[in-house]
From TrEMBL:
Organism: Cupriavidus numazuensis
Organism superkingdom: Bacteria
Pfam hit, one: Hemerythrin
Annotated signal sequence range: none
InterPro entries per UniProt: Hemerythrin-like
Domain called Hemerythrin-like: residue spans: 14-128
Protein name as catalogued: Hemerythrin-like domain-containing protein
Amino acid sequence: MDKSKIPTEQRAALALLLDDHRAVKKLFKQFEDAKEDADKQSIAEETCRQLTVHAQIEEEIFYPALRGVSDKIDDMLDEAKVEHGVAKDLIAEIESGEKEMLDARYKVLSEYVGHHVEEEESELFPAVIRAKVDLADVAQQLESRKSELLGETA
Ligand SMILES: [Fe+2]
Ligand SMILES: [Fe+2]
């Protein structure tokens, strides 16, 4: 999704979420390229931290702002909620689970999150743009909540 093509009213909010998606995809790639267990472990921890904050700001601020806009968007939000739940279970397993299972769990997490991100970017975000939802305030709320949460986990 090309940020410059997003209308002004939605641009800042969607750009913030798109940047989060890019950052996590970069971590997925870094994990794939990592050779040492210690590197994999720290990349996995950072991935879990970023995904947890991203999911939380979407759930607290972004998704509620879209509730009721249309039946189609409501259906997508329901699906997103279920997908976040599955991702959180995987994150919890990665954070507390056995080291031998890290590669397998991380692989499943990256595939699963890749699918969810793809749906947001190809279905949800375009629907939000088509519905002309004004996200200017939402952008500010996402931004400040994100820095607050990242500060807490630093
Ligand atoms: Fe999401
Ligand atoms: Fe997202």
